[in-house]
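Progress report, Aim 2. The chain analyzed during this reporting quarter is listed below.
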Amino acid sequence: MNTPHSAAPGRPPHRMDPAGGCPHAANARLLAEGAVTPVILPGEIEGMAVLGHDALRDFLSHPDVAKGAQHFTALTEGRIPDGWPLRTFATVPGMTTADGADHRRLRALVSSAFTARRVEELRPRVEAVTAGLLDGLAEAARAGGGVADLRRHYALPLPLGVICELLGVDPAHQDRLHHLSSLVVATDTEPARAVAANRELVELLASIAGDKARAPGDDLTSALLAARDDGGDRLSQPELIGTLLLMIIAGHETTLNLVTNAVRALCGHREQLALVLEGRAAWADVVEETLRWDSPVSYFPFRYPTRDLTVDGTLIPQGTPVLAGYSAAGRDAKAHGPDADRFDITRGTATKHLSLGHGPHYCLGAPLARMEAAIALEALFTRFPDLDLAVLDSELTRHAGFVGNSVRTLPVRPTP
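Predicted structure tokens for the chain:
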């Protein structure tokens, strides 16, 4: 990465499909042409995507790349409408749109809840929740003629329940929080509906915070409220709501997709499942290879060069919204070898993946996501070693949008 010399000539922009779909075929085609591609975002907004592993790693940690919305040229020029489906990613107040000292301040307020030690203390609770959900999955299968939606009955309620418990959120709010957050992260949500979903989500989070202000507890929301009220300079009200929104969405959507994708991968690669069931590989290996091979986040918005940059020979002008192409980087043959598109839990280089980020914005909840996924997979296949998909993988309906990468439902047969 250096001072710009020239843009890559003649490369047509890739039109991002708001409806999503499996990204891997398009990623392979784009990667064959280079590590960076121009893209057309919803609403005919011009952007870029960094796809190659090495180029993305360097870009994510570059000192002249920012997250703050004030660096988004089209936004500051008033060309981004309120109902633009990616607007929340760009504008929500909080650590995902903060840089420098502001980012460090906001990250420090919640980082203590996600240290390796604090996460390990959650292990017994995660194991207990998982056991209860397996009972529910078995019951759902009995009621459904032997078939149950693993995503709905298992992969979703585990991370959503854990993050809501950390935040002190009443379980009664969980379904609504998931519904609204799924609308917010989808890239095909109709503008008026996107505006309404954002408004309702902010109102619901403000109501949750208000309840905690009146009756504080031993939870992260109460701790954030105390920081907000401690002199007023540690956390503003919009930052409080933005932080809660980030914790809830990032705290369950990524792990939901990770568990779903791992189960799909193991069901489609029974020899890999046999390795781990026989103790010749670890569940942590399954988690890391799934993160690399089928990243739970495909294209994450946004970063902006604060000056013109050339990345792998392609000019990215200052103020351009740039997508982090995690799903493409995970299968980059230059980083992972000629068999990068093969699912292999014995792959020694799997830990090189970037699917949980890199640099100052590396995923704060990575230890929790890894632990939840490993526990969920081990418990699931220990109880149901012959579990398999109830339909062909090719028949599964893909996740809405190009940010999250998974399927909408996962019907399985959990045979004891």
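The two ends are 53 Å apart (CA to CA). Residues 1-8 have pLDDT under 50 and may be disordered. These observations will guide the mutagenesis work planned for the next reporting period.
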